[in-house]
From TrEMBL, chains A, B:
EC number from the UniProt entry: 1.17.7.4
Gene: ispH
UniProt xrefs under InterPro entries: LytB/IspH
Domain of life where this protein originates: Bacteria
Full protein name: 4-hydroxy-3-methylbut-2-enyl diphosphate reductase
Source organism of the structure: Arcobacter acticola
Amino acid sequence: MKVKLASNYGFCFGVKRAIKIAEDYKNSSTMGPLIHNQDEINRLRNDFNVGLYTNLSDVKDHDTVIIRTHGIPKDDLKNLRAQKAKIINATCPFVTTPQQIVKKMSKEGYSILIFGDADHPEVKGVQSYGEDQNDVHIILEPSDIENLVFKNNKIATVAQTTKKKEKYLEIVNALILKNKEVRVFNTICDATFENQDAARDLSKEVDVMIVIGGKNSSNTKQLHSICLENCADSYLIENETELQNSWFLNKKLCGITAGASTPDWIIQQVVEKVESQN
Amino acid sequence: MKVKLASNYGFCFGVKRAIKIAEDYKNSSTMGPLIHNQDEINRLRNDFNVGLYTNLSDVKDHDTVIIRTHGIPKDDLKNLRAQKAKIINATCPFVTTPQQIVKKMSKEGYSILIFGDADHPEVKGVQSYGEDQNDVHIILEPSDIENLVFKNNKIATVAQTTKKKEKYLEIVNALILKNKEVRVFNTICDATFENQDAARDLSKEVDVMIVIGGKNSSNTKQLHSICLENCADSYLIENETELQNSWFLNKKLCGITAGASTPDWIIQQVVEKVESQN
């Protein structure tokens, strides 16, 4: 069976980079799970002796600690330094950018608005860089703006990297109508949407489509649903053991894509098994 | 006849201010017509000896020259100074703001986008404050963005004061999607829209509505059209001589509004004549 991979699939740039860093720093530990995939965390522990801390207080002097892609709050970083940990920063550069923007704009006297989920580790990290925490506002919906009281009439805005641009525009539009200056930083990362676009394109040109990822992962289910729109024979699997021979009968070309938390080695195992089909 | 004036009508803040300045500087001259109303220009000439220059080269040493509400290009101002003219700046503060923003942002390395009419004196003045004229872009339609090449990926935007906010948002939205930073300055003045809103409200509560302004003035015709939606007996006149007794038969309350180029003294003459109706 001939196989074609989507032009974008699986891990984004920031996650790939963080895994490479973890592999380079054997015997280190990550602060919180590096990614949302237990198989990959097991692999890093077994093959590279990369451990996992869940609490800052567990870190011992001179430990090597990897900061994960989401980043961590400024004070946590300070505490890690105080504990004399060797810090390896695997914060995604696309997350470091809004952290630095919030720090700079806040110093320059702008009120800060973050479009994102206040409970998400990335947003907590970005938020922490505001000088005046009472003038850093986090909202998820354009309608939430009505309840905000900014200290300044000049506002700087950033967005959580995985948010949708359309909603970000709705929010900044409402701000522009009410304020003298709105400094809009487009910090949204296209990775999630690039995977979706690529899955859409590929599913239009193949006979059968395999989507690899967690059955409970919302971004994987989203990919599957997009593929089904264009290719009725689209299947969602977690690994190569779920592949069924019958799916490939009388098919010529199999497209493959994967959710954002699916490691390359799982994808590779699927590719090889599909290629071995008649 | 009882009369009620719209809560906003006629001259905006900037024009009222400029006329006051002209009255305060007897024997001066304006650079270009102060406002688009010949009756008012005649009044200033007859009552205050305020003259009119159409060309910079006509200005004589030590003349007192009034800069009109739209402002003038930076180099023209420089030339006036070189001619040792006494300069009285009646540029509307709402126009000075975008001039200063373009100057500052341009110095800080931003590409400049102006939403406005490239041929309008206000826009020509604002544009002139850009450091690098090849990186100051003027557009009227969101679709015009496609043809622009900015030198930087950080862009500062201002709008001509009389433009519509909805279209400005469309333009900045397109920019936000394509650029890392868009610094949006809301320089639109609400005066025109406030007159329209007030005319709409008033026309709903009166028996008869009078709109005073030039029959060819687009903003006056717009006011008339808004009033007609709510009050069938809405009339457009240029001055009190056009009022007809029959309009007020069996009416109780007459609403009055005026276009943006209608001087108060013409409005006052209409009010007095309507009030004298039975």
